[in-house]
Design brief:
mainly alpha, 2 domains, 67% helix, 79 residues, globular
């Protein structure tokens, strides 16, 4: 019940539904995050969800950072 309330709150603020969030989470868990094609697909999914366009140059930089494991493990380090 708590989980549904959390998803409802997220959906209300972002217009992204529970199934979309779970689908993306599953994709992240099940795939090799060193595979450039998978990373590219996830970036495109996030771009569509957020309505933010990602240039090829920026996408390449993100893919490179992920493949080289340069992404902070602690979410607090992202901000």
């Amino acid at each position: 019940m708590f989980k549904d309330a959390l998803f409802n709150k997220i959906e209300k603020k972002t217009n992204i539904n529970k199934n979309t969030i779970l689908s993306l989470a599953k994709k992240l868990q099940e795939n090799n995050m060193k595979d450039e094609k998978i990373i590219s697909e996830i970036i495109e999914d996030l771009s569509k969800l957020t309505g933010k366009e990602v240039s090829k140059e920026k996408k390449d930089k993100i893919i490179d950072a992920i493949k080289k494991d340069k992404i902070p493990k602690n979410i607090e380090n992202l901000f």
